[in-house]
Design goal:
One of its GO terms (molecular function) is hydrolase activity. The chain is an alpha/beta fold. Helix content is 45%, strand content 15%. Helix 4 crosses helix 5 (92-103).
């Protein structure tokens, strides 16, 4: 990878700048508590630990137009549950706001704030996410030129339009953007297919809040994409500190 060709960086958010699972666990716990108080008829359904996941999957099937809108899907799933339990579906918005407030409460990985400060001094940064997190509520908005979400754009990674939109916001050509993310298919394969460059963040399972037993690695070089049969050149790192070191070098 020729770093002198990089003129902007786009960054994924969940599991790249902070662990997503703890946010989701807190948010769903807050949602359950609120429903038990304000929509008590849902308690029978919610006795099943998989209920929220089941309703979300159903919402995806029933509302394909919301495929890129995670907030919309969550609202639809809550509304469907309320209707099934003969509770007022108008409660869905208040329930979602409780969920969303906790979903926005993130804990940055230890190196992120310092790394973003260093990177933003060198290059314009753009947040590019399929999720519904907010860089300003996360306390890091000052480092970014702007943010693009799939819900607003109407297109999600790995579609090329998502990466091209990030390049446009940064004011550079797609070939001049290094996209940084944790998902191999959505972030790495997608960025390279869109004509850009990619850095794959492979953190430890403990950092992500998941079960241990998986060992990350890092280094420069291609990796094979089983879906296309092609090699995908990328930078592999375990945290943003290593990205700063690579670009600085």
């Amino acid at each position: 990878m020729q770093f002198n060709r990089i003129r902007a960086i786009s960054l994924d958010l969940d599991d790249t700048l902070w662990p997503f699972r703890p946010c989701l666990v807190r948010a769903e716990a807050a949602l359950l508590a609120w429903l038990q108080t304000h929509a008590p008829a849902t308690q029978t359904v919610l006795a099943d630990p998989a209920a929220l996941m089941t309703y979300r999957a159903r919402a995806q099937e029933r509302h394909p137009e919301l495929r890129a809108d995670l907030s919309g899907l969550r609202r639809a799933s809550i509304r469907a549950m309320l209707e099934d339990c003969q509770e007022d579906p108008a409660l869905a918005e208040s329930a979602f706001e409780v969920f969303f407030a906790e979903r926005q409460r993130v804990d940055l990985f230890p190196e992120v704030e310092e790394a973003l400060g260093q990177l933003s001094e060198r290059l314009p940064l753009v947040a590019l996410t399929n999720g519904n997190a907010c860089i300003h509520k996360a306390g890091i908005g000052r480092f970014f030129k702007g943010a693009i979400s799939a819900a607003v754009l109407g297109v999600a990674k790995p579609e090329p339009q998502a990466f091209h939109a990030a390049a446009s916001l940064a004011g550079v050509h797609p070939s001049e953007v290094l996209h940084v993310g944790d998902d191999w298919h959505l972030d790495v394969v997608g960025a390279v297919a869109a004509g850009g460059h990619a850095a794959w963040v492979v953190r430890s399972p403990e950092a992500l809040g998941i079960a241990p037993g998986w060992a990350p690695g890092h280094g420069l070089g291609p990796a094979h994409d089983s879906s296309t049969g092609a090699d995908v050149p990328h930078l592999r790192i375990t945290d943003l500190r290593q990205l700063c070191e690579q670009i600085g070098g």
